Amino acid sequence: MKEGSRRKKLSQTGSSRLFRYLIPEEIASLLPQHGSSKELNLVRLGERNTETTPVDIKALFLGPKAENGELAEKMLLQVFRDYIFWRRNFHPEDMSAIQPEEQTSAEYQRLVARFQRELFMLLGELKADIPFYSPRYIGHMVADISLPAMVGYLATMLYNPNNVSWEASPITTLIEVEVGRELAKMLGFGNTPQELARTWGHITSGGTVGNLEALWVAKALKFLPIAVRFAAEELNVTGLTASRARIPLESMRAWDLVNLTPTETLDLKDQFIAAYTGAHPELEPQEAVAEAVQQLKAHNILTLGDQAFFSRLTDEDSLNTPVIFASQTMHYSLQKGAGLVGIGAGQVISIPVDKYYRMDRGLLRQALYEALEMQRPVIMVIGVVGSTEEGAVDPMYELVSLREEITEQGLSFFLHCDGAYGGYMAACFRKPSGELRSLAEMQKEYGGWPTSEVHQSFAALGAVDSITVDPHKLGYVPYPAGAVVFRDGRSKELVAQEAAYTLGGRAGHPNEIHLGKFILEGSKPGAAAAAVFLSHRVVPPDQGGYGKLLGHTAKIARKFYHRLLLLAQSIQDDFIVTPLVLPDTNIVDYCFNLANNDRLDIMNRFSQRLYQELSIHPESPVQTRSFIVSHTEFSYANYNPEILKSFLEQKLGVKGDYFVSSKELKQRRSEGWVGCDDEIMVFRTTLMNLFTLEEAWGAKDYIDLFLEEIPGLLRKALAAL
Ligand SMILES: *Cc1c(COP(=O)(O)O)cnc(C)c1O
Questions:
Q1: Which atom of ligand 1 is nearest to the CA of 387?
Q2: CA 432 to chain CA centroid, nearest Å
Q3: When comparing pLDDT for 54 and 488, which is higher?
Q4: What are the strands, taking DSSP E only, across 181-308?
Q5: Residues contacting ligand 1 via CB (< 6 Å)
Q6: Tens digit of pLDDT for each residue in 241-253?
């Protein structure tokens, strides 16, 4: 078949089914090595993949006792044998480099012996590692990895593809782009392959890098209109207009320019490039585009650096120090990232949370109007979906509507959602078509979860600009697999970096995809992308797949919450236990106290004693623990003290004025006061393990076992006080 007609044929058959979201043109240009028989294969594979998904969690994991050990062993053996044949079949005419006689030499044997010995040492030491797979591990945000993820990772790792560039990973680069689009669909950025092709998502080493990349892009985007104005001046491009009011660019001050919306900003860039190209018919179009892009780059804040960039903005163009507003529950990676991209960790202003640990809309609104009043540029606003400590979901729908409101007033910003933890729960909210499910239908399936607020927040995700979401958390995929997804794929051009030797250059194919050009990281495992890909193929990221798994975990968390309330009744004569809030996702936080203690310092000391029984220490290795939980500390400085004080008073019997700032604490201690503290010790349980409600001992499940254990541990902690 001729090239042209082959492409036409692919377009006619619709998208290939191995890659459901890459559009036919992308596949046709990037898999040219496959003839038409491959097309048939792709389609056939797809047919098999469109069956309705049977999700039996019992087939999906190795199992707490490695019950599926034989299945996994069989698959891994198949993977390895298949891989060996692949090696033998690459230029089979070549001679062997290692001869059988050499394999029996004394030297050879000595090395093998050393290898064996050292391997068993390592395997021995690893037994002190944490049994994340066990339903007795209910601590941090990690559980077992799924079998598809494990096998997909190990299989691909053998090939060792490097997704920095297409040349080093012709298959897994495409897989990563496909996975990015699957995540974009799950989060509500689009449904059809054409819509999804306009988004941009990829795998990162984790949520930290996902957030960092969003900060990087948001900063470049914020100041791009200023770069356009300088570049237009330089290249004599006139007639550009920006924003809904269609004001000529030349007459816009820096303050107006930085308050264009992200979409208006990216449109302005396109407009500039088109205007320059149109004004220079003597140049090849590609050449003209390159010149315009180069000029833009020369004026970009990432090229100039803050010092040189801002020093050019004088008089009525001068700008105040830009800020970021983020939920008080934000992950510390955001401060790290803000420091790294030069925004300044100190310019990340935290917006206090309400009594559900969700960002307080009223306080955000106030902060935004103050910024408007003082003409302080807001680079971005960050809401958290599934906060690291509480699993709380910020009111994303309020953030979206607030942005609409204040954009009208002349202040705009980039809206980011840190869904590193909770983002995958979006799967529960989406039908396979991508359509949003109704609240009533979901509550019926998931035992009352989610609340209407949480439902509206997930429904609003499609309107934000970028989302961090970690497959290595609620995707049950091995590390390292985070992800970041941008609603508008043009964002990636703002941080593009050429490198001819690895990222295509002149000799490259025009349609090659070089991830390394647009992302923060360089060399990166194609295996991570393949693990996510295979997981999504077996368990799709929608209602029928991950939705089933994660909805089940939300249900488990509610059970845990309610049974904790029952435990509270049964021990109330001696001890207090109280959950913090009804969980938004699948993390439950709770606090303990002695029944007749009203001092915060004693409550914390008692909690620490108890925690020692429920966590590992060098002296108490994992085998000696019956359950492992995690903890956090709510500090006076980082939380809303009024809300915490009333929680202490009403739920924990800490009645005095004991919760104070660090400074006050020091002062009071020096005056001989007792009872105070500047932190509250909180227990934290992540209910990700899908086997938690299985019968563990007789009719008891793991929550029963855990709660039965508690009274004894409380007495032990009291005795040790
Ligand atoms: C875990 C987490 C991160 C950081 O992700 P890593 O994968 O650990 O880098 C960021 N934000 C939130 C909300 C998280 O829970």
A1: 13
A2: 21
A3: 488
A4: 200-204, 241-242, 247-248
A5: 206-208, 211, 331, 333, 384, 388, 418, 420-421, 470, 482
A6: 987 778 899 889 9
